[in-house]
């Protein structure tokens, strides 16, 4: 059985490293989408500036609930926002912790 010398792997490793470097430096192509005719973008919360929204839920009557990571829950209706829950003092809002979502009972 023949054994390869470790010196033979040097050029191969160098070529492999150069190839991996070239792949990581490559600029990805940007996809440019075409919007359908008649497509409209509408601001559902005009004038509202949410800090860290983490979840939304739609009420059956069309209102929208938005929860934020810091422990606040907002209701959006008729273009205005109202804070309906503030539990900042009991929510651990550090790192990936916080108020993460809201759900609406369908009944």
TrEMBL record:
- Per the UniProt record, one Pfam family is GSDH
Q: What is this protein called?
A: PQQ-dependent sugar dehydrogenase
Write down the superkingdom of origin. Bacteria
Record lineage: Bacteria, Candidatus Eiseniibacteriota
* SUPFAM superfamilies in the record: Calcium-dependent phosphotriesterase
* Residue ranges annotated for the Glucose/Sorbosone dehydrogenase domain, each copy included: 50-107
By its UniProt entry, which InterPro entries does this protein fall under? Answer: 6-blade_b-propeller_TolB-like, Glc/Sorbosone_DH
